[in-house]
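User: Structure with 2-acetamido-2-deoxy-beta-D-glucopyranose, tokens only please.
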Amino acid sequence: MKHVFLLILLCHVSSAVKHSLKFIFTASSGVPDFPEFVAAGVVDDILSGYCDSNKKIVEPKQDWVNRLFEDDPQHFELYTTECSEKPLFFKARINNLKQRFNQSGGVHVLQRMSGCEWDDETGEVNGFNQLGYDGEDFISLDLKTLTWIALKPQAVPIKLMWDTDKARIKVKEIDLTKIFPELLKKYVAYGNSSLQRKDIPSVSLLQKTPSSPVSCHATGFYPDRATLIWRKDGEEIHEDVDHGEILLNHDGSFQMSVDLNLSSVTPEDWRRYDCVFQLSGVKNDIVIRLDKAEIRTNWVSPSEFPAGAVIGVVVGLLLLALCITGLFIWRRNKNGFRPANTSDSSASLSDRNSAPD
Ligand SMILES: *[C@@H]1O[C@H](CO)[C@@H](O)[C@H](O)[C@H]1NC(C)=O
Ligand SMILES: *[C@@H]1O[C@H](CO)[C@@H](O)[C@H](O)[C@H]1NC(C)=O
Ligand SMILES: *[C@@H]1O[C@H](CO)[C@@H](O)[C@H](O)[C@H]1NC(C)=O
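Assistant:
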């Protein structure tokens, strides 16, 4: 259950052009075996600290958070205080909302997400503070007008009440525009070896059948500030090109692919195409020439099988051969791609195309 909740919170991939800090509080009622209150500190979409109403001590989830707490015990104290006070506060809030909605029982979830984004190139900072109830946006703070925005009719009375509390709005404004950005900069500096790292992906060409588009696939890069394009004679092309989304891998790195439809390209012209991967802040691009020998596929041409009764025998022999090279079969498992050329190394195929979190 805990995992389900956290996945819902973390699964959307932001365009990490910016660094971000999010404090996500989740209060629930009527969910058995799940803490009534869960708090998550998330830096650059990676869970960094956690606490809940059962264990009120903040748990560091990244090495750099451990180092930070060792160097600055007050920081640890600050979060621990929050973790012991917030559950009661949110319990009162959710009870209040249940009354407003005339809900006596059932499962209810109140979430607050506050934090900021910081662009380390332009220095621009954006703060946000929003609440959701039962999975829908409920109310949020507008930093331009310093008033609350009701996102549901039931939130209007709350908006009117909260708007009169100027002192509280002022505290929130300082948090969102000054305190949180300072924290985020501190965290990015502490976590620099993991958050500011640059991981170069492995890039390969994949094709399902000889008439399918050729997919240029890059996986294992970090951060997600990257481009993947097809070029013809060194110029980027857009026609017959289909860009996939950037997806998150299980290990926190990213993958993406870009397909090129080659149905109108003659074999002689193939060598004029290449696929280029570029990671922001990294000088050397990765360039893969379009070359039949480089393409990995699981396609077996039907003409390779002789017709008639022989087929049974051949298939039998083929199966035997495949069993002997059993390792090879294993490698096909998840994604169905294997090297077109059996002498190729297929070692890294198993971690390609891993399903996004
Ligand atoms: C809740 O119940 C009261 C009294 O029964 C009613 O006046 C009010 O409109 C109800 N509110 C909602 C949101 O249904
Ligand atoms: C992280 O910061 C430390 C100290 O400021 C520095 O020595 C180190 O090179 C930095 N690492 C990266 C990956 O930026
Ligand atoms: C590739 O392009 C051809 C014509 O240019 C079109 O008929 C075909 O449907 C396209 N294939 C895909 C997979 O988009």
